[in-house]
Amino acid sequence: xxxxxxxxxxxxxxxxxxxxxxxxxxxxxxxxxxxxxxxxxxxxxxxxxxxxxxxxxxxxxxxxxxxxxxxxxxxxxxxxxxxxxxxxxxxxxxxxxxxxxxxxxxxxxxxxxxxxxxxxxxxxxxxxxxxxxxxxxxxxxxxxxxxxxxxxxxxxxxxxxxxxxxxxxxxxxxxxxxxxxxxxxxxxxxxxxxxxxx
Length: 198
Known about the structure:
The protein has helices at 26-34, 114-118, 125-128, 165-171, and strands spanning 16-18, 36-41, 43-50, 53-61, 67-77, 83-93, 104-106, 140-144. The chain is an alpha+beta fold. It has one domain (8-171): SOS response associated peptidase-like (hypothetical protein yedk fold). Strands 1, 2, 5, 6 and 7 form a 5-stranded mixed β-sheet that branches. Strands 3-4-8 form a 3-stranded antiparallel β-sheet, with no helix packed on it. A hairpin with a 2-residue loop joins strand 3 and strand 4 (53-61). The chain is globular, with a radius of gyration of 27 Å. The termini are far apart. Residues 193-198 have low confidence and may be disordered.
């Protein structure tokens, strides 16, 4: 949330910052100059339509090393002293191999470039824009995972493991039950002129 927002309840949070326009957009320009951060992760999830159903994939470095996502941070301060810290992940166009999952990817900063990215005093924003690029082809790998990742209550190491055949079978859509044939409504009895309450 940019610091200049007057009413946070009227502002939609910006979770991604496009690398191509990060120096131009008022929402990100100042953060790009002085509040560059890294978000550490083992990987990230992307959903893809597969056989008519949305399926999650876990994307991670092929060598298993952790990832440092390029991000921008802001602290919004309200008129009554309240504070709200927020972060937006920087994204860029996907390399051809990752583009099969999604046309955009988070920017990952190489470990040897962490200090350069983070040091806003020594490195101007224009000087670090060259770091905002897609991973090299083959640098990342991915595999399908269980749809359990779609429930906040689930938070365990199983969420990054490849889906098993048993899990896939359990997650398969159940065949629709056939509706029982409707019984024909009974014919009303012939009116014999003797009105009835029943």
